[in-house]
Amino acid sequence: MSDRRCDWSVRGVAVALLLFFGSADPALAQSETKSEESASESNSEQMMEEPAGSETEPEGSEASQQQEPRRRVFKRIGPQEVTAEQREEAERLRKIAAKYGTDPTAIVGRLQLTSQYLDLSRGAEATVSTARVDLPFRGDFLLRTEMPFLRTTDPNRPGLPSQSGASDLAITAGWRVYNTPEYALLIGALSTFPTAANDALGFGKYTVGPAVATARFLPRLDSFLIGLVQYQTSVGGDPSRRDVSFFRAAGQVNSFWAERWWTILQAIWQVDFERSGKSSMTMELEAGRSLIGRFGAYVRPGVGIWGRDVAGAYQWNIEVGIRYMFRSF
Fold first, then answer.
1. Which residues contact 18 (CB under 8 A, 6 or more apart)?
2. Cβ distance 251 to 267 under 8 Å?
3. For residues 213, 216, 218 and 222, what is the CA-based torsion angle, rounded to 10 degrees?
4. CA-to-CA distance for 311 and 203, rounded, in angstroms?
5. Whether residue 191 has pLDDT greater than 60
6. Short-list 186, 185, 203, CA closest to 194
7. Homologous superfamily of 85-326
8. Exposed, middle or buried: residue 121 (CB in 10 Å: 0-12, 13-18, 19+)?
């Protein structure tokens, strides 16, 4: 039964992501609708001209109906045609996003410190401070290191209500495989290591998994639609600890204001397959400002929608951070 639930959870994740990216551009949808109408009229005229014994496959056949939605979905999630003016604007905004550190597909260096407060379920609380370093090299490759320090307070644990110390080290290696001003795709591998000071502060497991990031220009909004997908599974570590099988997908709309401000509206969906595919959803809104030179700062409040007891979720949170961005080697 658990395997079936996990299988349906994976299918649900894939379908939701395709639908999300596929409906992102109203102008494109309208254009495709007109194209389909023109094609339908053309097909009708051809059918009238063809002899009655023609073996041409009818437009409404089952095979045609099955293939057409797939074509439209994959066409929408890939690179889109834009005008010369739109391409120029996309290139300008991509440079701003890289400077601010809001484009996950950009190959730029980063030194960042963040602090996050989380109000958890059943009266528990946590504070996470994270040091992050991104090292770009050879134009399209990136190595990211994140070291979190965690402090938790849980009244449901008699004798050990408070824990603090280092959590699990995370390292991501990424490669930007496609890059144009209006669309970019980065793929990578995420690994975590059981460096936590004690059992309450980490998984106690080595984990690996794929990571994918996309950034697509939205001409009508002068913004970027960003998609992030990660999966982690345990490959070793303490055999007495629970295995890890965790999926995370995020959708963002990244907008820029007055050349110095940015906002990110983000929805995060997580699925814990070790808990029978139990999922969570959180919503966050980030507001940031470019400071002197390549320094920037932001604040990001968030709220849990459902599944607030799933790992990585919360009832509400607030995060602040400061970063310094530098160019690729």
1. 73, 77
2. yes
3. 80
4. 10
5. yes
6. 203
7. monomeric porin ompg (2.40.160.40)
8. middle
Express each pLDDT in 193-229 by its tens digit.
Answer: 999 998 889 999 999 999 999 999 998 888 999 999 9
Token code pair at residue 1: 């039964």
For residue 227, count CB atoms less than 10 angstroms from its CB and return exposed for 0-12, middle for 13-18, buried for 19 or more: buried
Three-state secondary structure call for residue 79: coil
269 CB-side CA count, 13 A: 15
Closest listed residue to residue 256, CA positions, set 94, 111, 70: 94
- Asked if 117 contacts 318 with a C-beta cutoff of 8 angstroms, the reply is yes
Spatial separation of the C-alpha atoms in residues 237 and 234, rounded to whole Å: 8
Q: Is the pTM of this model over 0.70?
A: yes
Amino acid letter, residue 296: G
Which alpha helices (DSSP H) does the chain contain, by range?
A: 2-22, 26-49, 62-77, 84-100
SS3 310: coil
pLDDT mean over 63-74: 57
> What are the domain boundaries of the chain?
2-82, 85-326
Q: Distance between CA atoms of 176 and 179, rounded to whole angstroms? A: 7
* pLDDT per position as a tens digit, 202-211: 999 999 999 9
3-class secondary structure, 179:
strand
Q: How far is CA 47 from CA 50, 56, 59, in A?
A: 5, 9, 10
Place of tokens 């401000």: 261
Residue identified by tokens 């001209």 is 49
Task: Read off the tokens for 201.
Answer: 């502060």
Rounded Cα gap, residues 267 and 249, in angstroms: 8
End-to-end CA distance of the chain: 50
Plot region of 236 (φ>0 → left; ψ -120 to 50 → alpha; else → beta): left
Rg of the Cα trace of the chain? 23
Check if the beta carbon of residue 187 is closer than 8 Å to that of residue 174.
yes
Strand partners, 252: 226, 266
Can you tell me whether residue 247 is helix, strand or coil?
Answer: strand
